[in-house]
Amino acid sequence: QIDVFLARSLLEKLYLFQYPIRPASMTYDDVTHLSAKIKPKQQKVELEMAIDTLNPNYCRSKGEQIALNVDGTCTDETSTYSSKLMDKQTFCSSQAVSNVSRYAAAVYKKGELHLTPLHGILQLRPSFTYLDKADAKHREREAANEGGDSSQDEAEDDVKQITVRFSRPETEQARQRRVQSYEFLQKRQAEEHWVHLHYYGLKDSRSEHERQYLFSQGHGLAENTELIKSPSEYLMMLMPPSVEEENDKPVAPSNVLSMAQLRTLPLADQIKILMKNVKVMPFANLMSLLGSGTDSTAVLRCIQQVAMLVQGNWVVKSDVLYPKDTSSPHSGVPAEVLCRGRDFVMWKFTQDRWVVRKEVAAVTKLCPEDVKDFLEHMSVARINKGWEFMLPYDEDFVKKHPDIVQRQHMLWMGIQAKLEKVYNLLKEHLTPKKQEAQSAQPLLVSGEQRVNMAKAKVKQNYGQLEKEFQKQKAEMKSNDTSAKMDVSNIRIKEEPVSDEEPMDTLAYEGLNNGIVNGLHTEDDSMDSLNGHLPGDRVAQELKAFVSSTFKKQFVLTLSELKRLFNLHLASLPPGHTLFSGISDKMLQDMVLDTGCKQILVPFPPQTAASPDELKVYALWEAGDTYDQHRQVLLEIFSKNYRVRRNVIHTQLSQECGEDLNKQEVDRVLKVSFCSVW
To answer: Which of 79, 158, 517, 550 is deepest in the core (most CB within 10 A)?
Structure first.
């Protein structure tokens, strides 16, 4: 058991110096300290210590060379080494520990331990400023040599033009940046004056006297009240209450959130801080972060003040991220322009799940770094696709809170009107998509995948379709019982009229499941083959397909029409009449019978398109208001396969007798040509 005493005599005066590994020519115990100085505010110390030049480990020639490089040949009061020999070394200090409250100097004497808190711990390192002085001397000598060779005509100073500039008044924001700059801090540190000290050796009487202050001067209770505590008070010092602990804690950085501190704030401030840091969040996640027992109605009231609804999720408002009187860290653009650009990105995501970065940059005219920041707030980059909204569509929130969705929709309509005025957007591109389009997940399905999906659907419904087919077969068998024949006598209908190849339907043979030309090859199912299948029914089905297709897409190539027909076949049940074999000739004749015309587009001879892609068919009369415009366009493209927009504009105005503007011409082109050949 050892008694511990707290010595206060050297409180806030005691420093610990840590010296580097001493060289053989220098011993710190008996070395002479030539000078010492300190900057108290910075706790910076410089010590000048003598080097034993008589030590056998000291290289005299090296010391003379260093002194010559630093001071040159002349010796005066400004010389660093007056003895023309490097006989001293300067040490500069740096703080080893920023917080020294845990450290103390201890002296043990006669069964007592005396502690004195340290005011600072400084590490001393050699200073090589004499090398900078040597370099400066070398540059001065070189400049003097060059100056001696110059002409004597330089005696008269040349007339130089002086530019006078008036400094602008410094703003408060510029002043704060200047005060926090490294150059300003270095200047402030250099302005503090050195305080010269007197060094006393280890065995000096003054040192012996000062060393006595390391011991506690009185052993009474008044001197050591901190060390005499009851067990409960000692426990309280070790583990203070949580309230006191929170009061003593420093304020966390703005980008660091403590959930314990966050929940002590008002609900509106909690939501604002969370949204400012997360930026995009579903409502369910926000409720989980706010803790149990939080009123969802109050949360909905507060969230609408700091965030906007995008695809069922909440995205922080632009003015929360970019407050007034701030600017972009990349381009210096003011906050108002940044808010408009970010609102445009948010609005684009209310229309679609995908946004193209180039399109945003072209509309907003902002630098790429700012646009990238906007997109990274709420989306994820996909290679060769664009930027996709980072969260899925929250359908649950939309169904539970239709009033909130409607209110947010009205707010977006107001923002859309402002964006239309600022960026001069076309109204066609500002039409919002339906909500169902937002809720649907974007799927990129190829033609082969669609065929496979149709095959799977056919197999699922095969049982029911088989029963219906057997019922139809029985009815047809009862009408004509004399039409039975062997399978070997069946002949498939051919098209001898045209030399063209029939349509390739081999990819869809798997759909027939034992069917030849759409009918089963069983012995009892031959009644309807070889001419007994009504031809008008096939024509009606084919005509219905062609009519519906051209009403959706007014212009099609033969290649595209065949692709759409194959997809239509894949969706039909087994035994359908269209499986009886449709040739290219039949399909083209049906297209002409439905009111369509073949457009002889003069494609260039060196084109790489296939023959089916060169055959273009168009619906001549659709019964709408654009029939006349469409016919004029088709006549134009029958003369040239590539036409300028101004030519189309002029021709439409002349033929139709209307003075159409650019937007109306664009609409005519969009309505008339839904597909591009």
So the answer is: 550
Give the H/E segment covering residue 350.
helix 335-351
Rounded CA-CA distance 113/107 in Å is 6
Distance CA 633, CA 419 (A): 34
The answer to whether residue 525 scores a pLDDT higher than 50 is no
Looking at the chain, the whole-number percentage of residues with pLDDT higher than 70 is 75
User: Which residues are paired to 3 by β-bridges?
Assistant: 112
In a 13 Å sphere around the CA of 613, the CA atoms on its Cβ side amount to 9
Instruction: Determine the pLDDT at residue 215.
Output: 87
CA-to-CA dists, residue 172 to 55, 175, 177, 325, angstroms: 60, 5, 9, 12
Please state whether beta strands 280-281 and 313-316 pair in parallel, antiparallel, or not at all (unpaired): antiparallel
**Secondary structure of residue 464 in the 3-state scheme:** helix
Q: How far apart are CA 249 and CA 243, in angstroms?
A: 10
pLDDT value at 309 more than 90: yes
For the record, the structure tokens of 67 come out as 């002194």
**Number of helices (H) and strands (E), helices first, in the chain?**
27, 20
Residue 486 CB coordination number (10 Å): 8
Taking CA atoms, 1 is separated from 4, 230, 564, in Å, by 10, 18, 97
Three-class DSSP category at 298: helix
CA distance 375 to 356: 10
pLDDT band with cut points at 50, 70 and 90 for residue 39: confident
Strand partners for 113: 4, 108
Tally Cβ neighbours within 10 Å of residue 660: 17
Provide the CA 463 distance to its chain's centre, in angstroms: 52
Closest CA to 90 of 163, 144, 36, 30: 36
pTM of the model: 0.33
Provide the greatest CA pair distance for the chain. 141
Residues 347 and 310: their CA atoms lie apart, in Å, by 8
Dihedral sign, Cα of residue 32, residue 35, residue 40, residue 41: negative
Confidence check: pLDDT of 284 > 60: yes
Strands 616-619, 555-557: pairing kind: antiparallel
Q: How far apart (Å, rounded) are the C-alpha atoms in residues 494 and 502?
A: 9
